[in-house]
């Protein structure tokens, strides 16, 4: 597997790269090759007064490379210019990446939104599964909030096609997952399930598949607003990562209403792994 690790060379973005435990987790799920991507905004120029971008960038990337190679990965670095989320997605497509990782500062008491613009835009547009890795906010030398990225997974499903696509990620996450909580949130607008199935039966079927892999699994059905209930389940069970699929709403619908997956990525306290729809669909 190939992973994109997006970095803006800040102390926060270093946290995942320099966390031995996070790197170990990536290795356990099959990542062998990591592509470091740093994007220089189009309006920033190396010759601007007080801006020694070239030297800072080279020092940082050399340090990151040593750390990642020391953990046993092949490493490549990409320095590109433009809009961060577009260029990150472009590199992911160009190298055939299986996963994109972006660090995000944790929640501020004064903010309703917890992730930066690049992470938020990636959540809306990512072309491969996206891991938003939550980083300590109020720290000069920040660390990741959940080191064991995939040890405890909270999987949220509405039994849609894309939710099933997200569940397929367990085919590789299982190598690093010990516990899983499977959550379905009922709402009055739920479409009927096919073949007369009920949510409990569907969750039990999914749980049996995970238990065959030796993952300790629980199931839970909640009622209410899907995003609110998924986040309430996060507070109850304290997973290391929430796993959720995106339905890929149109830009207009997203701007008007938002999507459940985007709300979860934006408001979650811990890590979130977002699986986008199959682009061929």
TrEMBL record:
> Which InterPro entries does this UniProt record tie to the protein?
Universal_stress_UspA, UspA
Q: Which CDD domains does this UniProt record tie to the protein?
A: USP-like
Q: Could you tell me which residue ranges the UspA domain spans?
A: 6-132, 150-276
Q: Which domain of life is it from?
A: Archaea
Family membership noted in the UniProt record: Belongs to the universal stress protein A family.
Name of the protein in its database record: UspA domain-containing protein
């Amino acid at each position: 597997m190939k992973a994109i690790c997006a970095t803006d060379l800040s102390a926060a973005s270093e946290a995942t790269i320099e966390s031995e435990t996070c790197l170990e987790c990536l290795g356990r799920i099959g990542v062998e090759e990591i592509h470091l991507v740093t994007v220089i905004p189009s309006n920033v120029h190396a010759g601007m007064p007080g801006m020694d971008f070239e030297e800072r960038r080279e020092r940082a990337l050399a340090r990151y490379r040593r750390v990642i190679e020391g953990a046993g990965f092949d490493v490549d670095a990409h320095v590109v210019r433009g809009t961060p989320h577009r260029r990150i997605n472009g590199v992911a497509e160009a190298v055939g990446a299986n996963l994109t990782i972006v660090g995000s500062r944790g929640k501020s008491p004064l903010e309703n939104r917890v992730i930066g613009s690049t992470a938020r835009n990636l959540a809306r547009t990512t072309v491969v599964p996206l891991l938003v890795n939550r980083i300590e906010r109020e720290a000069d030398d920040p660390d990741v909030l959940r080191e064991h990225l995939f040890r405890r997974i909270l999987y949220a499903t509405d039994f849609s096609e894309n939710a099933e696509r997200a569940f397929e990620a367990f085919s590789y996450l299982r190598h690093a997952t010990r516990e899983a909580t499977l959550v379905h949130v009922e709402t009055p607008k739920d479409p009927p399930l096919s073949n007369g199935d009920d949510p409990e039966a569907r969750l039990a079927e999914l749980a049996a598949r995970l238990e065959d892999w030796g993952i300790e699994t629980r199931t839970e059905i909640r009622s209410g607003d899907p995003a609110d209930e998924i986040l309430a389940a996060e507070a109850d069970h304290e997973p290391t990562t929430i796993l959720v699929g995106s339905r890929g709403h149109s830009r207009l619908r997203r701007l008007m209403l938002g999507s459940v997956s985007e709300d979860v990525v934006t408001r979650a306290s811990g890590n979130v792994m977002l699986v986008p729809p199959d682009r061929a669909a």
